Amino acid sequence: MATEANLTRKGRGRPKGSPNKVTAEAKAVIAAAAEALGGTKRLVAWAKEDPQNEKAFWAQVYPKLLPLTVAGDAENPLTIRAIERRIVKA
Questions:
Q1: DSSP state of 62
Q2: Are 23 and 31 in contact (CB under 8 A)?
Q3: Half-sphere exposure of residue 8, counting CA atoms within 13 Å on the CB side?
């Protein structure tokens, strides 16, 4: 019976892949706040104020711009090589 009810609701709701309105609005508000606080120039000045700020920028801010997945193409596939190093006491 529950399956029949689901069939009548087919097509309702947000389509797959469409952006969440709340997330889009939150990003717009954050971008506006960043501009009001000085934008790019202020962010650079903040990063240069203290080595810890620059570390925070590279470790926490910048990675958010990078893609979540990295993929190669068919002609040049990605290869991952692990290197193991051991320290042995003499």
A1: G
A2: no
A3: 4
pTM greater than the 0.70 cutoff: no
> Quick check: is 87 in a domain?
yes
Is 49 inside any structural domain? yes
pLDDT at position 38 is: 96
Is there a domain that residue 6 lies in?
A: no
* Tokens read off for 82: 């692990």
**Does some domain include residue 27?**
yes
Instruction: Give the span between the Cα atoms of 79 and 84, in whole angstroms.
Output: 16
Q: Which range among 8-22, 50-64, 65-79 has the greatest average pLDDT?
A: 50-64
Q: 58 is in which domain, residue-wise? A: 15-90
